[in-house]
């Protein structure tokens, strides 16, 4: 079976770590697999290169920035290939244009369009380990492009899909995906298996384990991803299509996003286009809007609240105030000290009472909910930042996520999540 392994920056951040990665690759080959490897830049190298660029040019040229940032992976792939050769394993390093990995003609956040596999298949057939630079590609004009932060995950999945691999393994400094961040809740449990939908929700709601685009790519092509530690042996967390033959856990995890900010507009005339008038200037500034709530009152006016990324807060607030400057009855206020906490699990599709149980747990802790949003497998609440730690902890306990799955008591079945 072909296995694609991806080693993140923390797994190749020193000579010793690169040598450890080489041993891990050899162990996979010893199990009878053909192995292709995707590697990120070493440690904090990308941040160092960004700082260098900004020291030269206040707003670095996008094309030249891609050329600069792509150099980080060139170092790590060469060193890892050397480490494998030193151990008697033939290996060959590849930059994206040598494969090639084709992308759109977009700098800093390009999307992969096609991966050529002739060289890779030839290497694998000959017992050679191809060591491929992640995070980068080449456009139709021959320009170097990069895929954005975390882009090596996407590279690894794209290579796995192109090679028809049996599995794409993402190796880093974590053992897998946990029920929540174990640095915040030490009782968090390692999750053995997640569906693509669950991992997409976890990633979009604040989990930094995998890049969202990588999970989307894997889900589209049904490519299993295994998140595992590069330091210790274990099966990690398998992310794959839902297994219809197994009982889905009620809640798989508690995710959170501390980079939220809320904007509230009151006294808006209740008429067609009210929401558009508020949100259009925000979206036209390329600012993503997350949670949206509209409350209509008997007075003929409505209140509209929505959230944006905290880094976009001041800009979004100014845009809304400018748009409503001719409407003195409207008031615009903001709050950039809020967090979003989310419950995620495919078991929500077939169990009732999830939201009730969630609100009860928060109420016991005296935590007010500002905004709620739901999907088929997710319930998110916006709360004051001061309640962040208690909110995550109490929900983790309320759904018995501090217990192994086989010790969690069942909930009655039903159709709605409420």
CATH class of the largest domain: Alpha Beta
Q: How much helical structure, as a percent, in the residues?
A: 25-40%
Q: What is the beta-strand fraction?
A: 25-35%
How many DSSP H or I helices? 12
Q: Which whole number gives the mean pLDDT?
A: 91
The major beta sheet can be summarized as: 8 strands, mixed
Structural description of this entry:
This protein has three domains: 2-173, Carbamate kinase (3-Layer(aba) Sandwich), CATH 3.40.1160.10; 259-336, 2-Layer Sandwich (VC0802-like), CATH 3.30.2130.10; 339-407, 2-Layer Sandwich (VC0802-like), CATH 3.30.2130.10. The protein contains twelve helices and 18 strands. The protein has helices at residues 15-30, 45-56, 62-69, 71-86, 118-125, 151-162, 196-204, 212-221, 274-283, 313-323, 354-364, 388-398, and strands at residues 2-7, 34-39, 91-94, 101-103, 112-115, 129-133, 136-138, 144-146, 167-172, 193-195, 225-229, 237-240, 253-269, 289-296, 301-309, 331-344, 371-375, 378-384. The strands form four sheets. The chain has an eight-stranded mixed beta sheet, with helices on both faces. A six-stranded antiparallel beta sheet has the order 14-15-13-16-18-17. Helix 6 packs parallel to helix 8 (212-221) and helix 11 packs across helix 12. It is globular. 44% of the residues are buried.
